[in-house]
């Protein structure tokens, strides 16, 4: 079953185009993760937060990525990583144009 992973954390920047340039190689490597479907990168300079919304093919691949990414973030000095995992209701998501199928 498709699985959505939501991650966010305190982040002091950079944001926008500067962040896109700095993390381009990371984005390329994320795209090659097992079971990966897509990621929306999230950022809010006003509240000093960043993160992402991911779609994986199943809970196992989402959980494996979460473990790997949490360790990577902690290695970069991010103390608290907030994450939530959700099953995706494909029939309802299809009606509302959700990119899951």
TrEMBL record:
Pfam families: ydhR
UniProt entry tagged with the keyword RNA-binding: no
Nucleotide-binding as UniProt keyword: no
GO molecular function: monooxygenase activity
InterPro entries: Dimeric_a/b-barrel, YdhR
Domain of life where this protein originates: Bacteria
Keywords: Monooxygenase, Oxidoreductase
Protein name (Swiss-Prot/TrEMBL): Monooxygenase
Organism, as annotated: Elongatibacter sediminis
Lineage per the UniProt record: Bacteria, Pseudomonadati, Pseudomonadota, Gammaproteobacteria, Chromatiales
């Amino acid at each position: 079953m498709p699985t959505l992973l939501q991650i966010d954390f305190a982040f002091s920047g950079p944001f926008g185009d500067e962040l896109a340039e700095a993390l381009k190689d990371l984005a390329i490597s994320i795209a090659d993760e097992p079971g990966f479907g897509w990621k929306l990168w999230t950022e809010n300079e006003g509240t000093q937060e960043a993160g992402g919304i991911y779609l994986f093919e199943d809970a196992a691949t989402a959980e494996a990525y979460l473990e790997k990414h949490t360790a990577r973030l902690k290695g970069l000095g991010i103390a608290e990583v907030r994450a939530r995992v959700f099953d995706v209701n494909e029939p309802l998501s299809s009606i509302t144009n959700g990119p899951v199928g």
